[in-house]
Sequence to fold (253 residues):
Amino acid sequence: MARKVIIAGNWKMNKTATEAKVLVEELKAKVKDITSVEIVVCPPFTSIDAAVKAAAGSNVKVGAQNIHWAENGAFTGEISAQMLKDAGVEYVIIGHSERRQYFGETDETVNKRLKAALAAGLKPIVCIGELLDEREGGHTQKVLFTQLEGGLSGITGEQMEGIVIAYEPVWAIGTGKTATPEMAEETHCYIRQQLGDMFGQEVAGKIRIQYGGSMKADNAASLVAQKNIDGGLIGGASLKADSFADLIRNSIK
Ligand code: PGA
Fold:
């Protein structure tokens, strides 16, 4: 079975609830005829409710950008998986490189959040990716292997089929530097091989692997055309309905 392309917009710390409503309403009008691409927007927590309401009944789904692993309790400032589920959230980004870089996220905490998301019935998008010096030092595969091994520890093959992996070379995020489609495909191919070793070829063949890092309307088609690239996690280009809708349309295989 072919893997359905998934395009997710990671709004990061952008868009108030008022702005989120406008953006989702504009977006859903522009993409309403598209059925072959799964479309997700991931607003900040305070804009989730507005996005869920604006997206209701459309083909636009809503995700969150992070969760805490505990069910509830004394964790000031944190949001649980159950809170997101109750708010109408379907997807959750876990282990984004900005969380790793600025907020102390590790493969171990990625794994805890992943298990909490799955337990609550949220669909996780697990981010992995190497830094520039790691790529230049020839360590990309080793870094990705460690992130997959640690982040996905204890996950079953059945659970894995519902998990999306986002490969985001950190040097390409927000920099305008995209990996070439060939370079990205080579890495996606490696990731799928590793998933095959961990979970078996059949499961690995079903897992969707997104590319992320300066993906835009004009480079989406060539990236998604690659055999092992099943969509994208989009930052900057997801903040305007026009550019995001064009990107989604260009990602139809
Ligand atoms: P970008 O961000 O598209 O702005 O490079 C991608 C991401 O961080 O998910």
Observations:
- Residues 181-199 form the longest helix (19 residues).
